[in-house]
Amino acid sequence: MNEEKIVYHLNLNEAKIKRAHYALLTGDPERVSDIVSAFDPQAAEIACRREYRTFLGQMNTHPVLVVSTGIGGPSTSIAIDELAQIGIHTFIRVGTTGAIQPNVGVGDVIITSGAVRLDGASTHYAPIEYPAVSHHEVLFALIEAAQNLSIHCHVGITASSDTFYPGQERYNSYSKYVLKRFQGMTEELRKLQVLNYEMECSTVLTLCSCMGLRGGCVTGVIVNRTKEEYIETEDLKSGEINAIQVAVKAMSYLINEQK
Question: Domains in the chain: how many in total?
Fold first, then answer.
């Protein structure tokens, strides 16, 4: 690819990203600056279009991107595809999540080994029978990072849903109604040892695997839905901070190993 060619949605090219190969992804554009400041306070914003906000920083002398994807699979798939087009080969999603197992505490992190594909975007890249699994190198780096930081982590299966309300069996929506096919789903997933709900992981893992890239996901627990549904501001902060710390340290390990 011509390094001057701009990818359409992200407004980036190889030259603008200094030929970076690593990216930390997050849904919230406002979280981008928090993530990048955890490893490079001098990092600069290099693009901002629609939901996609991009900072370029330095980690272990290597250029690293932090990019917001917006909420859900469709916008996340665009970010991964376009970043891959300009040379990114390693992705870590860092986000927040709601736990559905009673033993998972608020402020813990969940490191996803595989995901239940309740999304639609990933099926445009690989059939539903194709597994959404983390790359083993990224998975091991995330686990090692959490252990070395003494941040309590859970490793296992995540459910990724296209919707926040009915697809995660929430009844506090406007209609207060959940389609029959989702009614009772949370309890079923709990019995299948699924740890949590979120909205992007299965897209990240499926796309990375089927395109020969490295992908992983760490999320901070901001609510345990076996106990309550309301998200406290302090819980949101603790979940975000812990997930960011684990993701940044894991990325530094991957960069060092690549050297």
Answer: 1
93 is catalytic: no
Instruction: Supply the range of the domain harboring residue 179.
Output: 22-258
CATH code, domain carrying 97: 3.40.50.1580
Residue 253 within a domain: yes
Side chain identity at 36, as an amino acid letter? V
| pLDDT tens per residue across span 23-74 | 999 999 999 999 999 999 999 999 999 999 999 999 999 999 999 999 999 9
The active-site residue out of 62, 93, 214, 225 is 225
Q: Can 225 be counted among the known catalytic residues? A: yes
Helices (H) then strands (E): counts for the chain = 6, 10
Catalytic residue among 14, 82, 200, 240: 82
* Alpha helices by DSSP H, the chain: 31-37, 73-85, 136-149, 185-191, 201-210, 233-258
